[in-house]
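Troubleshooting log. The previous structure file for this entry was overwritten by mistake, so regenerating from the original sequence record. Sequence copied from the archived sheet and checked twice against the printout by T.R.
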Amino acid sequence: MKMSKTKLIFGFAILSSVLILSFSLKLHSNSKSAVTEEVLQIALSSHLPEKPIMTKSIEFFENRLNERNGEDILAQNQLLGNYLARFKAYGRQKDLAAAKEHLNSLLKRYPKKASLYSTLANVQMAGHQFEKAVGSAEKAIEVAEPDDFVNFHLRLFDALLTYGDTDEARDILRTMSFSRRSFDFLVRKARLEDKLGNLENAKSDMEKALYQAKAYSQSPVVIGWCLVTLGHYEHHSGNGQKAVDYYLEAFEQLPGYPGALEGIAAISHTIDHNLPAAKQLYQKALENGGELDIYANLIAIERRLGNDENAENYLQHFIKEATQDPKTERLFYRPLAFLLAEKNETLSRALHYAKLDLKNRPSSESYDTLAWVLYKSGDIENAYEAAIKAVAWGSPEPVVLYHSGIIMWDFGEKEQAQVLLEAALENAQELQADVVAEIRAKLQMS
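Regenerated output below.
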């Protein structure tokens, strides 16, 4: 059912005010490239160490556990943490699988240990089992000792925010009596501020968290993650050079860190528009363990360069790897839906993945996925309804603003579409050049 025009205009007036306030702080890049030739060579020469972080500790405790026929609780706890840390650094699914194995063993021994359920929620989020993660986080709170009851709500915040229940996640941070200067609280507050579009607040909170991580000698994985997150925030703000500085510092913590490589690649891609350099960096990130959805960027670059055969090869390779088993497939519902929606003959598969994505996580991004696939399928009315939900809360991603703006434009709601497209254009540093050109063309027609 179509929403009333009065209600829509009121809603978008609020959205427009929020977006203008959020984006007015953003800076635009100048003509000087943030990813210089020197930066490019540093990034490309940052190789994975022969024994990545935590490997020596893992080998020691695996040997110790084997010597004791699996009867060593301390070793299992150490291995659980070490495998998760190495997974966070280098994205190896086999590390996540090993962590799960030790976690399941420990849960059998200690079925009422809150910290294990909190870790289980973390593992489930990594596997995109978002609803299960919420349940595990709630279980951790249920069995927690009174002194730990409040702090275990931080894991519930993580699960709810990732699942898409942003209002409830926000209420946790606002109402619970956390230590508001602690590292654990600050990183969560930064994530929420980013979601709300308050980038200056997000950067400030993450800078404080990074200071604490360094001051208290947190692991290189934690410090590296903080640096890459700050790099992302600076990229979102249009500060490409400052973002690059953070990414380069992350290499000092984690050589060959795929998160830093992908961050530099994105700046080369969307700020510098140096497509050959971006291609090299994305390829290096994949080589070092980056997520398979990086292929979507490589496909876009090859198409932009006119290399359709290369783009098709990347597409087929991505589809093959991403659909090799249900657990892997679940990680890539969204990019599969977008890429398959580009061809009429695969639109039905695209819609299948879009619906799975929404069922798995009813978030702004998932409604955007469904909206765009429905739009590509010619179902403009249902696409419009999904697009309304995609931009209903907080500060949506630029690509979500773009998709929803295009859909509303073609639906005939040009006033609302213009608000969204102008907001997306304010984030041109996060969009591909052809998308920016399309937005500008639409706005010139208004």
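The CA atoms of residues 193 and 199 lie 7 Å apart. Archived copy saved in two places this time.
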